[in-house]
Amino acid sequence: MDRGKMTSAGRGAKSKAPQHPQDIFALGSKSTVVVNRDSEKRNIHKPSTSGVERKRETSGFGSQPPTKRSRIGSPAEAVGGTSLEVDPVDLVPSVLQALDTHNSDKLLGLLTGSIRLLKSQRSKPDPILCMSMLYLTKIRPNMFAHETVTQSLCTLLKREQGAAFKNKSNLLVFVLACNMLYAGHKDSNNWPDTFIKVYIEDALNERCWVECSWCKCLVENIITAFNTKQPPSYLIPSENTLGTMSPSGSGSPLMGSNDDETAVDTELEYTVFPRYSSSYETVEALVLEAIKEQIQRRAAPDAIHRGFLKLLAATCGFPEIRMISASRLEAWLHSGKLSRCAQELLAYVCCNADACGPTAARDHEVLAQLARMRLKTKPMQQAYQACLRVMAADSPALLRSVITHTIYNELSNVRSPNNMSVLAALLAAQPALAPVAMAETFHELVLRAEDYLRPLRALTRECVRAAPARADAQALLPLARALAAPPPHEPAAEVNYFMTYSKTTVTDSMLRQINKRLTELDNLIYLKVLRKTHFWVFHNR
């Protein structure tokens, strides 16, 4: 019996032990300690509420705003903690009152609160709220340059997480956010990196505001960070891009009018100049990180979408982007759904290549990748030749590099079928510089230890056969003269005799081929020039 009592008592003690603080069984000082702790908890909770009321009461004084401004420097804390709910009708009077009383806390709370309300109404925003925000942007644009307000506005441009928001018909929130951000930062030379992040995010996904013409005041200033040259318009294929909006003919999206009679032809006034001159490396790192992540996630060519190629085209100012694009362009050009965007990317790669600057080594690799492409369709070959003509017209150094890589590819085991058409196009585009560049490449090959005489003779015959008209045959005459001319530098003594014999042999073969071709064309004027050139070559042998 005692053992049972002891067991029950022990079990009772164990069951009552956790309930000891709730049941007031403790005696003496322990009960007072419990009461004091409860009072301390209540005392800790009370100053927080009274502190908020006290700060609201004293926020109008001059000593409080600097301390408060430094406290809300964190955008996440400010957006979530200081936002104030306000009726859209009372937004403008409340903001003006806060400005008059120099109440910066209330001002930030009203602005962030209205932005949060606008974000919750993304599908159908309140017209009064939109017009109130536009009015505040008009009278006080510097309010939207604050870091907290800028971060809040950038949340409107970000993609909604976990929500299937793919409706591009209502762009009102995006247009409002872009124009408010531009108004707040239009006089600044150093824009925050957050703009680059939201641009990349939208460019890789729905492209809701990146391709909207009413947002181009912000977009065109953001893309100055990429240092990308715009190719001529005739190199870019025409395509009706979904989601684009034209200022003329479709009406303003703010007014929601699509009638041709009521549409107002307005010109957007904005200035574009470099905004990220001091953060080139940071922007390049952000772009490369996003591009490489997409390539790893979408390794197959079929998994690549048009937005990715358009982002590559917009960021072709970076040499690493040009190298990534050139190594994959052949597969994208032959893809049915990506052919137009790939052709646009090809134009951007060719127009942004530089053979003389600090990125010359990587751009030579880009040109080598382009020379190895095997384009199957004639429209693609014509587009490629047009891009090369524009690139050669801008830089003679690029012309020499393109011709060199094309000739080397023609003499290789795996040659491209469009090499002769490329050389013919370059000879027609640059009749004075292209033959000299070809002759210099021939000289380099002749001076090598390998025997290139027979391949060069075959290449010369192919060049003559690829000349379908008299104008192209006329372009081969400067090539013959350039081959007969001495090289720009004096060769070594052991290769001097070999060079003289090889140069004369190649020149004689080429002159015979050109003479035969011009005889078929029955051009007596060119025959006289050829006879004089032939006599000069044999006289100086």
Walk me through this protein's architecture.
Residues 281-435 form the Integrator complex subunit 1 RPB2-binding domain. Pfam families: INTS1_RP2B-bd. InterPro entries: INTS1, INTS1_RPB2-bd. With 541 residues, the protein is mainly α. The protein contains 24 helices and no strands. Mean pLDDT is 75; it is low at 1-80, 240-265, 492-503, 521-530 and 532-541.
Provide tags for this entry:
single chain, 541 residues, mainly alpha, 62% helix, 0% strand, disordered N terminus, Integrator complex subunit 1 RPB2-binding domain-containing protein, INTS1, INTS1_RPB2-bd
Structural class: mainly alpha
Largest sheet: none
| Radius of gyration of CA atoms, rounded to a whole number | 36 Å
Number of strands: 0
Oligomer: single chain
Q: Spell out the helices and strands N to C.
A: HHHHHHHHHHHHHHHHHHHHHHHH
How far do the termini sit from each other?
A: 133 Å
Arithmetic mean of pLDDT = 75
- Tally of helical runs: 24
Shape: elongated
The proportion of strand residues reads: under 5%
Q: Provide the helix percentage.
A: 55-70%
Low-confidence stretches: 1-80, 240-265, 492-503, 521-530, 532-541
Topology readout:
Layout: H1 2-16, H2 29-58, H3 64-71, H4 75-81, H5 91-100, H6 104-120, H7 127-139, H8 147-157, H9 172-185, H10 194-203, H11 216-222, H12 280-297, H13 306-314, H14 319-333, H15 339-352, H16 360-371, H17 378-394, H18 396-410, H19 419-429, H20 434-446, H21 453-465, H22 470-484, H23 496-521, H24 524-539
Helix pairs in contact: 4-8, 5-6, 6-8, 7-9, 8-9, 9-11, 13-15, 14-15, 14-16, 15-17, 16-18, 17-18, 17-19, 18-19, 18-20, 20-22, 21-23, 22-23, 22-24, 23-24
